[in-house]
Amino acid sequence: MTRIMLLALGITLLIIITACGDDNNSAKAVAGSSPIEVKANNQDINTVMISKTVEKPDYGNMDSFQSILKNNAANLPYVKLGETIQVKFHDQTTGQDSYELIDYVLTEEGKMKYVGSEPIRPKMEFDNGTASFVLKENMLAYASSDSKDYKPGAVLRGFRLLCKWNNDTQEVAFVIRTDAIPEDGQTQ
């Protein structure tokens, strides 16, 4: 009788622990075997946050960028202007209903550097569960009067990709370092 009660207690505790796990709607850093992989010219971009579901996009909410910079500021990858960035969705077997990519110029703290400006929405292409876009300059980077912002790798760019499948919207946010202007000085 005691063994049956202990077994029942163990199963109950297992169910409670499993149900209270934080894997539901919280943002988490991508690591190892992630459902999403972000690369720039075959270089992994590991400074990524994934929100499993988003009720309504909040374009002014910079929490994911702030968290990335707080935990990974020293490990931000440098991506040259003109390189292709790919976001691969491993778990999606069908094409998305809609998507939106937003490009931000960020401060070192992960806030919008130029508040009140219209968000930049780069064009993307989707092919077999992989989104890709060419990293072009963000014209807001030219608004700086600080000469340090024009040095190679001095511009922090945050990207928010919102993809909708049926009634679920997934948000992927990542941060990179890049340049204000291309190496050759020609605008893209």
Describe, in plain words, how this protein is organized in 3D.
By secondary structure, this protein is an alpha+beta fold. The protein is 15% helix and 31% strand. It is built from two helices and ten strands, in the order αββββαββββββ. The chain has helices at 2-19, 63-72, and strands at 27-29, 36-40, 43-44, 48-51, 84-89, 98-106, 125-127, 130-134, 155-165, 168-178. A five-stranded antiparallel beta sheet has the order 1-4-10-9-6, with helices on one face. It is globular and about 65 Å long. Mean pLDDT is 79; it is low at 5-32.
Helices and strands in order:
Blueprint: H1 2-19, E1 27-29, E2 36-40, E3 43-44, E4 48-51, H2 63-72, E5 84-89, E6 98-106, E7 125-127, E8 130-134, E9 155-165, E10 168-178
Antiparallel strand pairs: 1-4, 2-3, 2-5, 4-10, 5-8, 6-9, 7-8, 9-10
Q: What proportion strand?
A: 25-35%
| Poorly predicted ranges | 5-32
The average pLDDT value, as a whole number, equals 79
Q: Please give the share of residues in helix.
A: 10-25%
Number of strands: 10
* Count of separate DSSP helical elements: 2
Overall outline? globular
Major sheet strand order: 1-4-10-9-6
Major sheet size, sense and barrel closure: 5 strands, antiparallel
Structural class: alpha+beta
What's the N-to-C terminus distance? Answer: 76 Å
What is the H/E string? HEEEEHEEEEEE
The gyration radius over C-alpha positions equals 20 Å
